[in-house]
Write a structure and sequence with these properties.
globular; binds fructose -6-phosphate; 8-stranded antiparallel sheet; 27 strands; 3 domains; Rossmann fold; alpha/beta; 21 helices; Glutamine Phosphoribosylpyrophosphate, subunit 1, domain 1
């Protein structure tokens, strides 16, 4: 959601900025723009894709050694050229880009209107920019000081980058709630919403914290807090290669990421799980093991796909650890004055580590004395940094908007966690523990095996591509996978889809069943098998079209279903890591056959940094 890029140094800024914006396209956006400084400010912006901005810019004067660029996901004001960023201040001396929402912008706008300011856009960003310029002019201070004063007056979330005609080498940046990474080069600095825009230039980065302000020049990076005190920048070495953020021969990032799962799950387990030795090494858990052992409950907070991973974890943790688990939508949890007791453990699950609702939910819970445990994919992200402990999913950068490999990474981490805690609590038998360790270790190989049959799912997708609705049903550990399958299908193919526990079908959704409705059953062999066979019969009796994800050798369901996809046998607790993969493929191929831009589906953002 909104991508931010900046550069100051000896290179031409425009190619660095525009390439950076392309790297951030995955975040989701509807307009793009750049601001350069060469004599005066040059601002170019356009509704639509970065490619359209590039076309528009052909032939323009692009020479500059400083630049800022932005991809905007509309919040205040429709997607349009005039609402696109960068915005230029009323006096034309400053340009600014912004990710986030200024909540009290209306009040500030009123004050500025009374002073005679005119606005050319509907955005909260232009209001903040003119507010900063007003302070700079009236206080006769420099831009840094004006930004500091302005930020103390505003509420909301922001990552802002500003350039000033009168100081042509300096970018002023600040953040609260929206991410900012600064890449440190020799005689140059790079700024980005994440590290992808700077990856080929430097591996040394500084993750800027909330309420910090950065003064960035080619040879200098100064970090300060809003009280004007200097902070020593903490330089981190990036452990990421350029290939990880490129398509590597696949048509789409989503497909690449689905096919990466054998290796991403392996990377997640590597160095942690050793089935032969009977060990799971997770330092984050070990450091907090007493808290986990004595926890009277665990609350999982997350959004979207990560929330579905939380639901699977609820089943696994309750079964293995006998600790009550509640799974909460972060957006509801943060606002409903929940009961959080000292010593409660909150597990926050997030691929991006920047989801605004999840971030604020855990900040509040932390204030109330809860222990925050983060399960995050993006290294160095905000949720990872504010958690008391945690475990990375190590799935590598996920660029496709739909979460795929991060989800299986979350399931792998959560299962290892549950096993580790159960072992320490002695709430699992040695036999079951060892069996599950070996089951977990075998997952990458099994995912690899089922991916070899992706063509079968492609054929199913082509057969059902004209469907207008779909139902996804599952029971037990596969119930959250049914929800996840429905979410994937709607976001990637725009087909209306609903997920339900299979037995709930009779309490309403069965009214939808006709001879044109595809009903996807996630029905791998487990303790619910007989029950779900009955549910399939009920759909068949009403002429529904059954697509079943089942275990190899399951002839009972194979004989009932219209179409089947087989996955290798696995313990019911482990099966979700397999059964979700054909559903990812189904949504991908459905999206492709229906002409959807699957990596950037409409209205969606990869990193939801506004609430
Ligand atoms: C769906 C999807 C979203 C995210 C949700 C949370 O494919 O990707 O539903 O899961 O926006 O994002 P994170 O995990 O980054 O907190």
């Amino acid at each position: 959601m909104c991508g931010i890029v900046g550069y100051t140094g000896y290179r031409e800024a425009y190619p660095v900025v525009i390439k950076g914006l392309k790297r951030l396209e995955y975040r989701g956006y509807d307009s793009a723009g750049v601001a350069l400084l060469n004599g005066g400010l040059k601002v170019y912006k356009k509704q639509g894709r970065v490619a359209e901005l590039e076309e528009f810019i052909v032939g323009k004067d692009l020479h500059s050694h400083i630049g800022i660029g932005h991809t905007r996901w509309a919040t205040h004001g429709e997607p349009s050229d005039r609402n696109a960023h960068p915005h230029t201040s009323a006096k034309g001396k400053l340009a600014m880009i912004h990710n986030g929402i200024i909540e009290n912008y209306a009040q500030i706008k009123k004050e500025l209107l009374n002073k005679g300011y005119l606005f050319t856009s509907d955005t909260d960003t232009e209001v903040l920019l003119n507010f900063i310029e007003d302070i700079k002019v009236n206080n006769e201070c420099n831009l840094e000081e004006a930004v500091r004063i302005a930020l103390k007056r505003i509420s909301g979330a922001y990552c802002i980058l500003l350039i000033d005609e009168s100081d042509p080498e300096t970018i002023i940046a600040a953040r609260k709630g929206s991410p900012l990474v600064i890449g440190v080069g020799k005689g140059e600095h790079f700024l980005g919403s994440d590290a992808s825009p700077m990856l080929e230039y430097t591996k040394e980065v500084v993750y800027v914290n909330d309420y910090e302000l950065a003064i960035v020049r080619p040879d200098e990076l100064i970090l300060k807090n809003l009280g004007n005190e200097k902070i020593t920048p903490f330089v981190t070495k990036l452990d990421m290669e350029l290939a990880a953020i490129e398509k590597g021969g696949y048509d789409h990032f989503m497909l690449k990421e689905i096919f990466e799962q054998p290796s991403s799950i392996h990377d997640c387990l590597r160095g942690r799980l050793d089935a032969s030795a009977g060990t799971i090494t997770m330092s984050g858990i070990e450091q907090n093991i007493e808290a986990f052992k004595s926890a009277s409950r665990i609350i999982i907070v997350a959004c979207g796909t990560s929330w579905h991973a939380g639901l699977v974890a609820e089943y696994i943790i309750e079964e293995l650890c006998r600790i009550p688990v509640e799974v909460e939508y972060a957006s509801e949890f943060r606002y409903r004055n929940p009961v959080v007791n000292k010593g409660d453990i909150i597990i926050a699950i997030s691929q991006s580590g920047e989801t605004a609702d999840t971030l604020v939910a855990i900040e509040r819970a932390k204030e109330q004395g809860a222990i925050i445990f983060g399960i995050v994919n993006a290294v160095g992200s905000s949720i990872a940094r504010i958690s008391n402990g945690g475990a990375y999913t190590h799935a590598g950068p996920e660029i496709g908007v739909a979460s795929t490999k991060a989800f299986t990474g979350q399931l792998a981490v959560l299962t290892m966690m549950a096993l580790k805690i159960a072992k320490k609590k002695s709430s699992i038998t040695d036999e079951r523990y060892t069996q599950l360790l070996f089951e977990l270790e075998a997952v990458p190989e099994k995912v690899d095996a089922l991916l070899k049959n992706a063509g079968k799912i492609k054929a199913i997708a082509e057969k059902y591509k004209d469907a207008t609705d779909a139902l996804f049903l599952g029971r037990g550990y596969n119930f959250p996978i049914a929800l996840e399958g429905a979410l994937k299908l709607k976001e990637i193919s725009y087909i209306h889809a609903e997920g339900y526990p299979a037995a709930e079908m009779k309490h309403g959704p069965i009214a939808l069943v006709t001879d044109t409705l595809p009903v996807v059953f996630v029905a791998t062999k487990d303790s619910y098998h007989e029950k779900i066979v009955s549910n399939i019969q009920e759909i068949k009796a009403r002429k529904g079209l059954v697509i079943a994800i089942i275990t190899e050798g399951d002839e009972v369901i194979a004989a009932l279903a219209n179409d089947v996809f087989f996955v290798p046998p696995a313990d019911e607790m482990i099966a979700p890591m397999l059964s979700c993969v054909p559903l990812q493929l189904l949504s991908y191929y459905m999206g492709i056959t229906r002409g959807v831009d699957v990596d950037k589906p409409r209205n969606l953002a990869k990193s939801v940094t506004v609430e």
